[in-house]
Amino acid sequence: MKVKNSNRWAPRGIRPWLYTAFAVIAAGTVRIMLHPLLGPIMPGTAFLLAAALVQYFFGMTRAIVAMVLGLFIADYLFVPPYGAIATLDQSDLALVISYPLITLVVICLIERLRRAQFRAEFIASVAQSRYEMLLRLDNERALASRAADETHRLLRHLPHYHDDIVLIKAFERRASAVGAAGSAPSEPGIAEGTRFGSLHPEDLVRLSATTHPGSQRVRIGTGGVYRAIVCIAERFTTHAGDFLVFRLEDPA
Prior knowledge:
By secondary structure, this protein is an alpha+beta fold. The chain folds into 2 domains: 6-128, no CATH class; 162-248, no CATH class. Helix content is 58%, strand content 17%. InterPro entries: KdpD_sf (IPR038318), KdpD_TM (IPR025201).
C-alpha cells in the first residue's frame, strides 16, 4: 500500500520551533557547564544530540536549523580561540566538516525511520478500521439471517395452527425493486393454510394472482358444495420482506 505524504508526519505550528530553540539553548547550557571539564574536546556533541532529538520529534527542517545554530555556537564558544570566528584553523575546519556530516547522517536515518513508522501506523489504522467494518457487517448479516429464519419459521407455523388462514404470500423487496426497474420480478412464495384445499380452484387462482390488500368474496366448501364467504387480504411489512395474509372472515 502506497501512503502519500508520508514525509509530512512532523507536527506543524509555532510550538515545534519553540521546542527547537529550547533544545539548542539547553544543549549550549549543558556544554557551557561541561566546558571547564572538556575544554575544546567534542565541541559539537551536545548540539548533535539536540538536533537528533529535534529530528525525532519535530522533523528534518527544524533539525537542520538546530544543527546550523549549533555549528555557529560551538565554533564561537567552544573552539579556541574562544569567543572569536575571525581566524579559521585546523580545529575550526575539523568541526565544520565532521559535525555537519555526522549530524546529517543521523537525522537522515531518523527521518527514514519516522516515515516508515508513520506509514506502518497509518496502514495499521486503516486495517483496524476495515476489520471493524467487516465485523459490523458480519454481525448485521448474522442478525438479519437469524431474523429471517425466525420469520420463516413463524410463517410455517401460522398456516398450520390457525383455521382462518387460507394462504400467505411472501414478497421479496429486492424482487419488487427489480420489477419496478423494468425486469420481471420473481414469483412470490406461497404458504398454504389449513383452508387452502377448501377453496374453489378458480378462487385459488385469483388469490394467488392478488398482490394488493383488500377483501373479496370467495367460495369455500367440500364435496362440490360451495358457499360464498369474505376473504380479507392484509399486508405486513417486516425486515425479511412483505407478506400478504389471506384469511377468512367467518371460517366456521
